[in-house]
């Protein structure tokens, strides 16, 4: 509808849209408040080597303990990070928290890597790598490879030049980069050749149905062959059952994450979970041979 403003001109605008915009602004402010109030925390989903029967790392996954709305999953607030400054604030908090956790685990004798999801706008910040370097400098005991960053395949494709610079610069710091949700980008695969990422996480949508769907199994197999030929490490996401793990192992994919292995865990449960998993790994038949 139209509104006559103080200057006498008539302004046309869409009230529902304005209300929605105002709500997004409020929600973003609420995220900043939540950060300051310590309402956010990270869960960690173990990433295991199914063949060796060991835990090699964990993916940090953000959660919001909202005082009114309860425990919020990322789908409720990660979309709101489509704002430069906020993406950076949340992203830096996640990296700082994950690094401190890695350090604490290392002190406790738990050796593993942690993967952090980097939002597209955070990745595109020109000073990302400088700031990452400053954060890493606080933990000189963390070896190279302890931190891995995940960028979405869709971002890697749509922001290819930035992504390529980002991957190079991270590598120079000893920080690995993985492509997340691989296979959802609906694009030519040739971009991978030019992007020196160390690993690629096959999207859970292909893994989920692979036991019942011959085409999905063929896609997973094809992706695994491609990654092997390109010298990249494959990680399967969404391994929901032992059978999924078995099928993946038979195709030569050894690294996996999924509810069938472990749901994302609070940090203080990790050490015990690792000990239990490694005592009786579900697929770890070859464990004794290469420890
Ligand atoms: P993602 O990075 O692909 O993370 C995997 C998601 O799949 C997680 O959901 C995890 O809990 C879930 N998942 C793991 N195994 C299984 C399984 O076997 N079956 C099923 N159905 N799901 C499984 P979550 O924690 O809700 O995170 C969703 C997405 O939110 C993440 O997808 C990631 O893109 C984003 N996200 C999470 N934490 C952060 C963060 O700190 N920063 C940013 N920028 N994004 C984040
Ligand atoms: Mg991820
Ligand atoms: Mg994923
Ligand atoms: Mg995802």
Description:
The chain has 291 residues and is α/β, with parallel strands linked by helices. It is built from twelve helices and twelve strands. The protein has helices at residues 15-36, 84-107, 120-123, 128-137, 153-158, 160-172, 191-194, 204-208, 214-230, 242-250, 270-279, 287-290, and strands at 2-4, 10-12, 40-49, 54-66, 70-72, 113-117, 147-152, 176-182, 199-202, 233-236, 255-256, 265-266. α1 packs parallel to α2. It starts with a strand and ends with a helix. Residues 59, 117, 150, 180 line the site of one magnesium ion.
Describe what is shown at a glance:
Helices cover 44% and strands 21% of the residues. The protein has twelve helices and twelve strands.
For the termini, the CA-CA separation is: 70 Å
Give unreliable regions as ranges.
287-291
Question: Quick one: how many beta strands?
Answer: 12
Bound small molecules, by name, code or SMILES, are: ligand C2E, magnesium ion
What is the rounded Rg?
A: 21 Å
How many H/I helices? 12
Shape: globular
Strand order of the largest sheet: 3-4-6-7-8-9-10-11
Which sheet architecture does the biggest sheet show?
8 strands, mixed, barrel
Q: What is the percentage of strand-forming residues?
A: 15-25%
Structural class computed from helices and strand pairing:
alpha/beta
